[in-house]
Amino acid sequence: MQKLAKYLLNALPRPVLIRLSLALRPFLYLWFKGKAYTDPIDKLSYRKFLPYGYGTPRPGALAPGTLSLERHRQMWLYLERETSFFTAPLKVLHMAPEQAFFKRFKRMKNLRYVSADLYSPIVEVKADLLDLPFEDESFDVVLCNHVLEHIVEDTKAMQELYRVLKPGGWGILQVPLKINQKDTYEDFSITDPKERQTHFGQYDHVRWYGMDYFTRLESVGFEVQALSYSKNFSKEEQKRFGLNETEILPVVRKKINQ
Fold first, then answer.
1. In terms of Cα–Cα distance, which of 132, 184, 120, 133 is closest to 161?
2. What gap in Å lies between CA 222 and CA 142, rounded to an integer?
3. Phi-psi label, residue 253: left if phi above 0, alpha if psi -120 to 50, beta otherwise
4. Looking at the structure, do residues 55 and 79 belong to the same domain, yes or no?
5. What residues does 250 pair with on adjacent strands?
6. Which pLDDT tens digit goes with each residue over 62-75?
7. Phi/psi at 129 (5° precision)
């Protein structure tokens, strides 16, 4: 299973992977259901979580039912326990929506939910993050996770997210982050997929963000919180939910008076 997953991750285009995983998900749940681990998103329990990751897969990363990863489960717990996301009337922009969230958010009656991406086969709006087709200050919440590391002009993308967010609005903008690295490493002359895998951890990434990521977000106007939210849980809960205590949740806000 691990060898097959690694091969598929590296061999298939992302849209194909999305369609394939949708088809396989019910069978994965039935095969791996148990009591050792609990996915906080679907509230179901499993005998194990699966390995996942380009290059060297991380053990126990992928929940079989929702196909969520550590960062997805941390974000869900934050939304559920620290925000009014599940109860307040909110207009939400979700860029490149994750499968773990897409259908669930779309069904929520309190949300005016808009999904957008340039390539994803499941979104409602085909949109370039560098030139979003939305009016200024249109959304209460913006979600954009593991997207910016694919974009050369990431500052422009951040500016677009800031532009469409209402004053007083907030968002979550996760990226692959090296917490022991001060400065972001990027080299746009590296275009070969294998070289990008070596330098940036994935064949279609153009950088590894360092801790200056938060300064980059602040430079376009956001107020930023770098939350180690998984540390709010006990070691037992971290293991049961499949959380990574070193994962940082970047929560951004747009001031009301700019």
1. 132
2. 12
3. beta
4. no
5. 226
6. 888 888 899 999 99
7. -65, -20
